[in-house]
Amino acid sequence: MAAEPPGTQMNNNGKNIIERAGGTRPRRLLLCLDGVPYEVLKNAKGRGMFDIFGEPSRLLSPFPTMTNVALSRMLGATAPLGYESLYFDKCAQELRGGVRKYIGWRTPDKTPSSYMDELDYQEPLPFEFLVYVAPETIWRADMRRFHDRFRRAPQTRDFFAFLKGTDGLMHIRGPKRLTVALNSLDKILKNIHDYCGDETEIVLFSDHGMNLEENRRVNLQTHLRKNGYDVTHNLRGGDRRGVSVPAFGLCSYVALYCVDEEAAAEVADSLVDLEGVDFSIHRDGERAVLVKGRRGAARIHRQGESEGEIAYRYEQITGDPLELAPIINKLREDGLLAQDGYAMDAAWYARTSTHLYPDAVANLFQSLHAPRVGHTADVLVSLKDGYYYGDSLFSRLARLAATHGNAMRASSTAFLMSTHRTLPSFVRADEAQPLLKG
Ligand SMILES: [Zn+2]
Fold this sequence. Notes:
By secondary structure, this protein is of the alpha/beta class. The protein has 15 helices and 21 strands. The relative contact order is 0.20.
């Protein structure tokens, strides 16, 4: 017994009940699994895994469905500078960050978002790169280290861990191998549940999902150059044909930066016929976003300021790029669509949370008008499932079995579940904080 690390014994004297928000609740283990889709988790649960947990909620990840964007919203933390470690700085008008910065990102001034400060466990730095070379080995080591660290932690406060290895496993190996890994994690969590008892609530969640098919690269830069654009690292010269397109991880979204709104509209037009592009969006003044794709063009309008007053309108200019026409018809039939075409945010949300593009109107509008990152793109592209954009160096290292980043259902639907609480069936990222930390 003397060799047992502290914090591993059953605790029956109420020491694990902690005070929070004026009340008390059990101590919480908050465990985030990077990139595990709702569907994969739901299937695992259907086969008897994770049976200590209640029903999983669909946790809607904001567009672009990337870790730092998602976790900063879910945890109510500061926005990261860009979508990834390589980003375009709109003040300096140039690309910043990248791999060298990434390797050094854990010094305080380089922390991408304040949620990082709250982590009690995350993988050691070299793992982040090795995971793409030897995903199984890295994942097992990561899991073991987390378990060890958790057992040594004081039982009188919450513990927050982030396991990134699941993301690498999915990208490189795909869902089958991820399920094997989830099986070992399930055993660890059952073990934790056994020795902590009811006094520790385990909350398991993911930051974003993934598509489950093999992916091809889009020839985005070549296409832009063919269309007369100058793909460049900085826009300081004010060149109207200049466009900056950070290329980093191999993901299914693209962020583009232009000299102004008009130039952004033209770039979005030129991307409509590029293979792999589902649609592009760009700002159209302060209260609208334009959506352009092969299926047509539409404008998303927003009105109302405070919660409960916000309404959206989906104006079809040509065709129906987001496939929302059937939803609008139903809203009209049910008397939820005003004369001027607006419907309340809550009505849209209720009708589109499992749509091809979950929560489409609010999610896409907010991706360009809310501060999800410090340097918001001028054009955001959502690629079709099966396509990615990114650094050509990374794409030579590995085949890509799955990826994420776009606004489609597979990438946008993460999960959230608890051993103690029944949670709502759908949770928007912006509404997750009280459920995770409250
Ligand atoms: Zn990823």
